[in-house]
Amino acid sequence: SGTGCIDSSIQFATIHPRPLADFSIAANSCPADTLTATNHTIGKGALSYSWAVSSPAVWISNPADSTPSFGFPDNQSGSDSIYTITLISTSEDGCADTTTQNVTIFARPVANFNLPAAACAPFTLSPVDSSTGNNISYSWSISPSVSGSNLATATPSFNLPITIADSVQYTISLSLTDANGCTDTISHKYTVHPVP
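Above: the chain sequence. Below: its structure as tokens.
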């Protein structure tokens, strides 16, 4: 002031530390697998968590858990699906940090094959493969068991023996595994009639 008097005031502000949100999870997986996140968040005191995924088709075991599990939908579309997982970590002071990671869910193969009309035994059965997928490997089987050939290829054959008592119904199964380790399986019935 004009008389040389002065005044001063001091106020203190508390700046709370913000947590550092961080987690790890498998970067890719086959459909229908369940993945569990590992939480690496660093922060003051008791932390709370909020998890979310970019698609409602993905289920979360508990969105408020520190290490939830995620279940992804099936994918036989022929194209991989990418989902974004978001973690919001909040400290006891209300400070928050957000981080995201992408997970790729591979498209798994589609197993399929056709069979001819029912036949009289003996008969060589050659399923016609119509499967789709990326670098797929084959595994064929039949029940009841009979001899077969090329069971690890797209062109197998089964030697169905003669039957004279009654018709026999076989179950032919195909299991596929693609280059990413994703699988699919399908089975069809086939009937062989007895000779007269």
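The chain is about 0% helix and 40% strand.
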